[in-house]
């Protein structure tokens, strides 16, 4: 597989997240595509490592997203939790822009 179309740049405002389902080898993979406060693009597994809560529904603050379920925040670049109760990172995927297309590569996770 290669990078897949997750959304278009116009689909997501700054400091917001969007849930996408991309094709994985074993079926659909839920991914949170996130624009940080500076307008940078990120993609990560759309499930908090502490519980079954979609990170795409969380609040974006700077370069992190906070899980609304228990309050753990995750660094958008590394996937590492920035506070308890989460102790395990979430997977981060590379994002590339091609015109107005936001592409995510599930085959090359960053963390």
**Biggest pleated-sheet summary:** 4 strands, antiparallel
Structure summary, number of beta strands: 10
Name the poorly predicted regions. Answer: none
First CA to last CA: what distance?
18 Å
User: In order across it, which strands form the biggest sheet?
Assistant: 2-3-4-8
- Helix content, binned percent: under 10%
- What value does the average pLDDT take? 95
Oligomer: single chain
Instruction: Quote the beta fraction.
Output: 35-45%
Our count of helices gives: 0
SSE string, helix = H, strand = E?
EEEEEEEEEE
Task: Identify the overall geometry.
Answer: globular
Structural class: mainly beta
The radius of gyration over CA amounts to 13 Å
Give a topology summary.
Elements: E1 4-8, E2 16-24, E3 27-35, E4 41-45, E5 59-61, E6 64-66, E7 73-75, E8 92-93, E9 95-98, E10 101-104
Antiparallel strand pairs: 1-10, 2-3, 3-4, 4-8, 5-6, 6-7, 9-10
Explain briefly what this protein structure is.
By secondary structure, this protein is an all-beta fold.
Question: What would you say this structure looks like, in words?
Answer:
The protein is an all-beta fold and 111 residues long. 0% of the residues lie in helices and 42% in strands. The protein contains no helices and 10 strands. The chain has strands at 4-8, 16-24, 27-35, 41-45, 59-61, 64-66, 73-75, 92-93, 95-98, 101-104. A 4-stranded antiparallel β-sheet has the order 2-3-4-8, with no helix packed on it. It is globular and about 35 Å long. The chain starts with a strand and ends in a 7-residue tail after the last strand. The model has no long low-confidence stretch (mean pLDDT 95).
């Amino acid at each position: 597989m290669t990078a897949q179309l997750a959304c278009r740049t116009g689909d997501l405002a700054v400091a917001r997240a969007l849930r996408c389902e991309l094709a994985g080898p074993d079926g659909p993979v839920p991914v949170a595509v996130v624009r940080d406060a500076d307008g940078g693009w990120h993609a990560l597994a759309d499930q908090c490592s502490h519980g079954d809560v979609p990170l795409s529904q969380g609040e974006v603050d700077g370069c992190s997203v906070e899980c609304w379920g228990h309050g753990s925040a995750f660094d958008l670049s590394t996937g590492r939790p920035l506070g308890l109760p989460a102790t395990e990172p979430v997977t981060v995927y590379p994002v590339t822009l091609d015109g107005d297309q936001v592409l995510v590569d599930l085959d090359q996770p960053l963390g």
